[in-house]
Amino acid sequence: MSPPTRVLIADDDALVRAGLSLMLGGNGEVEVVAEAANGREAVSAVRSGGVDVVLMDLRMPVMDGIDATRAVRALPGPPEVIVLTTFDADDYVVRALAAGANGFLLKDTRPANIVDAILRVARGEPILSPAITQRLIRRVTDLAPDGQAEAARRRVALLTQREHEVAVAVGGGGSNAEIAAQLHVSLATVKAHISRIFTKLDATNRVQIAICMHDADAL
Q1: Is residue 81 classed as helix, strand or coil in its secondary structure?
Q2: How far is CA 172 from the centre of its chain?
């Protein structure tokens, strides 16, 4: 058996942390290794190592989930981050995804779906539907500063033809498996392409790839 995915729960509500910890503790594929009551504690816990996925609340004292997500994702070999939120239209969600989070979950999501989301992001798969991705792109690019489109075009120009095809597929919300089937390549090849795309586009998650491709008029 593969080792369990190690999870950090960051939420200022002790009851929420306890509930999530209890729920995830009964699943052999996931192990809660740490908890944090604010963003600063979350970043410190990640620095200590041994975390694969962070469940990150957004509205926390000391350091909120957006700043904590940005700090976590800037660390070497960072864990994946899933935003925990109460409302799917929350502007905080948009900002957190732009800061590097890999997706979001509503706090009333069924336990089995939370576990599935954790395992998927740990494998590098998206947990945002294409419809949600497009909505986020529109909201982020509406606030884009002058010059962002030109910067995006310069980054996209660095992609090879195959990397460009993969980036377009990512922007369309495709999973790694779907992209592999679409382009008739192996899953390992898709993962290698996406790793290089992250570097060339200066992106930390699939939403940022989609935003960059959108800004460059490449979608």
Answers
A1: strand
A2: 16
Its pTM stands at 0.73
| Alpha helical stretches, state H, the chain | 14-25, 39-47, 65-73, 91-99, 111-122, 130-142, 148-156, 161-171, 176-183, 187-201, 206-215
pLDDT 10s digits, 164-174 = 999 999 888 78
| CATH no., domain 136-215 | 1.10.10.10
The answer to whether the beta carbons of residues 85 and 101 sit under 8 Å apart is: no
Question: Is 200 exposed, middle or buried (CB count within 10 Å of its CB: 0-12, 13-18, 19+)?
Answer: middle
CATH 3.40.50.2300 fits 5-127, yes or no: yes
